[in-house]
Amino acid sequence: MPAGQTMQERTDSMSEQKQSQTTGLPAGIQVPDTMAIIMDGNGRWAKKRGLPRTAGHKKGADTIHTIGLEANRLGVKKLILYAFSTENWKRPEDEVGYLCKLPGLFFDRYIRDLMNNNIRVTFAGELGRFPDSTQKVIRRAVEQTEDNTGLELCIAINYGARRELLLAAQKYAEDVRNGRENNVTEEEFSKYLFVPEEVDLLIRTSGEERISNFLLWQLAYSELIFTPTAWPDFDESSLRECITEYNHRERRFGGVKA
Ligand code: IPE
Ligand code: IPE
Ligand code: MG
Fold first, then answer.
1. Which of 60, 134, 174, 175 is the most buried (most CB within 10 A)?
2. 183 in catalytic set
3. Residues 9-47: tens digit of each pLDDT
4. What local confidence, expressed as pLDDT, does residue 19 receive?
5. Structure confidence by residue, pLDDT tens digits, 100-147
6. 245 is in an annotated binding site
7. Whether domain 30-245 has CATH 3.40.1180.10
8. Atom of ligand 2 nearest to the CA of 39
């Protein structure tokens, strides 16, 4: 045992080494509980390869599977993925049409694997604007996985943070009118949102450095990482690198360094 090291410290350092060997993360790394990703760059990824934008979305869906599994393996509790914004309806009809079909293609291919890995699927946003068939496959995946206890994989779809806040304010106002609520705390108000948790780490792929109407409330004190990697190229090691970088940040929440 190195001089000056207690038995406890030795045990800690041995278990850190073990953690590092099994997770692929450097020793002593803390995995964030709640992570969010703006999965950007599918279109540019495809264009660079002379492919239609939809080919980028198809490859991007495979990345959702890869990253979901890795986040689950590392012990992330909740991963919120921005899949379709309230602004994305502005895109050409054929692209929107393909994006509406993508949940069906994704769950047909991967639901069994999500089940085998104990991953629970949820969604954030308003499903009502999607075709019935899209709504159905998403609701079915949510039901099928609802008893799973591993990672919560939350797909933000027809999601916009301003819309989320507006709906929350409306629901709150209704509760006040009905005498059920008055003077809520921030924590209580967050329960009116699609996503009640605070995000520890936000990643945006593909070089853009903006929030694009994602989780405006929940990102108040998140650490932000912008990576040039396009979403279809983002892989397990990219995720581990982001988590390692997150560990180098000092979160102060408005206080001073301890
Ligand atoms: C993200 O990739 C996927 C969605 C927004 C649906 P993009 O389609 O935005 O790809 P770029 O930004 O045009 O490259
Ligand atoms: C944000 O990406 C939305 C999703 C990833 C679903 P966009 O590509 O739509 O964002 P902007 O237009 O570059 O801000
Ligand atoms: Mg984009």
1. 60
2. no
3. 666 666 666 667 789 999 999 999 999 999 999 999 999
4. 66
5. 999 999 999 999 999 999 999 999 999 999 999 999 999 999 999 999
6. no
7. yes
8. 5
Domain limits, the chain:
30-245
Q: What is the 3-state secondary structure (H, E, C) of the chain?
A: CCCCCCHHHHHHHHHHHHHHHHHCCCCCCCCCCEEEEECCCHHHHHHHCCCCHHHHHHHHHHHHHHHHHHHHHHCCCEEEEEEEECCHHHCCHHHHHHHHHHHHHHHHHHHHHHHHCCCEEEEECCHHHCCHHHHHHHHHHHHHHCCCCCCEEEEEEEECHHHHHHHHHHHHHHHHHCCCCCCCCHHHHHCCCCCCCCCCEEEECCCCCCCCCCCCCCCCCCEEEECCCCHHHCCHHHHHHHHHHHHCCCCCCCCCCC
- Cα–ligand 2 centroid distance for 60 (angstroms): 14
Is 88 a catalytic site residue?
yes
Residue nearest to atom 9 of ligand 2 (CA): 88
For the entire predicted model, the pTM comes to: 0.94
